[in-house]
Design goal:
Pfam families: Epimerase (PF01370). InterPro entries: Epimerase_deHydtase, Lipid_A_modif_metabolic_enz, NAD(P)-bd_dom_sf. It is built from 11 helices and 14 strands. It has helices spanning 17-28, 57-63, 82-100, 132-148, 171-176, 201-212, 233-244, 256-262, 267-274, 288-294, 302-312; strands at 8-12, 32-37, 47-51, 69-72, 103-106, 120-121, 154-158, 161-163, 186-188, 195-200, 221-225, 229-232, 251-253, 284-285. The strands form 4 sheets. A 7-stranded parallel sheet has the order 3-2-1-4-5-7-11, sandwiched between helices. It has a 3-stranded mixed sheet with strand order 8-10-12.
Length: 320
């Protein structure tokens, strides 16, 4: 196992859920972490914030100086502008990684797959996405694979739906509960007896750090599936009841009709509607390869993970 002493990572998307979780995990392992952001951030603190834009190749290249890893955890918000931003941003990251000899880290999406590969997704499962967003993600990974033939190293950790602190525009934070409001009901987007793959952000960050500790054993184009928590809607509901201390919390069907009616007027709602197929069948990631490689994969018990998530979303009653 390699030491991380004097190693530097540049994180693109450090203000988001998976980028932030990975930055914290790397800091815990002794990495120096730099982060590119368009926001004005405080100068103090463990992360070195650099003002810039992932859409600007010069900004990414300058920020990558001295980095051994570039964590590419940036996406256009709210499903907007994927056509014009996703691929240019990965091209900028590939160019910077090639220039400074850094490994790129991305967090693969289940959008790459169609129902023909469900219920169990493996690293070599065929990718036949039924949506344009999925096609873009497939092309993103194709560009990384092409760059690997030219010596640009990458690590793709594919995850299910994120949840956890600062999960942002995730299904859990936006579809199952309402952030900032007392938890009175949980909604679920699919049949309650079907399993679905979930990825707790701190576990994803810790797993990424553990993989990078084994840099000398990683392939040039390295792919792993993070199995996380595979759980049915009914079992997730029961776990949310326990984690929230609300044994009578009701479970209701996600209001897809509202999404359909809003779709003509909202890009986000149109794209959410296209993702409905992901909830119509069991969806599980095969983590055997990851477990064989790491031996022990970070995994927080789901009740503890959900309690932290619900607390961070501000939905738990604090008056009691």
């Amino acid at each position: 196992m390699q030491t991380t002493t004097h190693r530097t990572a540049l994180v693109l998307g450090a203000t988001g859920g998976v980028g932030g979780a990975t930055a914290r995990a790397l800091l815990d392992k002794g990495w120096k972490v730099k982060a590119l952001t368009r926001r004005s951030m405080p100068a103090d603190g463990p992360i070195q914030w650099i003002k810039g834009d992932a859409m600007n190749a010069a900004d990414v290249l300058a920020a990558a100086a001295g980095a051994q890893v570039i964590v590419h955890a940036v996406n256009p918000p709210g499903y907007r502008n994927w056509e014009t931003q996703v691929l240019p941003m990965i091209d900028n990251t590939i160019a910077a990684a090639r220039a400074v000899d850094a490994r790129i880290v991305i967090f693969g999406s289940v959008y790459n797959y169609g129902l023909d590969t469900f219920p169990l997704l493996r690293e070599d499962s065929p990718q036949h996405p039924p949506t344009r967003k999925g096609e873009i993600r497939v092309e993103l990974e194709r560009r990384l694979e092409a760059a690997a033939r030219d010596g640009v190293r990458s690590l793709n950790l594919r995850c299910g739906d994120f949840y956890g602190p600062n999960a942002g525009s995730s299904w859990f934070a936006q579809g199952l509960v309402k952030p900032g409001k007392p938890l009175r009901v949980m909604h679920y987007p699919g049949p309650r007896d079907l399993g679905h793959a979930w990825a707790y952000l701190p576990d994803v960050g810790a797993t990424t750090a553990a993989l990078l500790d084994r840099e000398d054993r990683l392939d040039t184009f390295s792919r792993f599936h993070f199995d996380g928590h595979y759980i049915t809607g009914n079992a997730l509901h029961a776990a949310v009841r326990r984690a929230s201390g609300k044994p009578a919390l009701p479970l209701r069907t996600f209001p897809w009709i509202v999404v359909t009616l809003a779709s003509p007027f909202s890009t986000t709602m149109r794209e959410v509607r296209k993702m409905r197929y992901l909830w119509r069948a069991p969806l599980q990631l095969d983590g055997k390869r990851l477990h064989a490689f790491l031996g022990v994969v970070p995994s927080t018990p789901i009740d503890a993970a959900l309690h932290t998530t619900l607390s961070s979303l501000g939905v738990l009653d604090t008056s009691a």
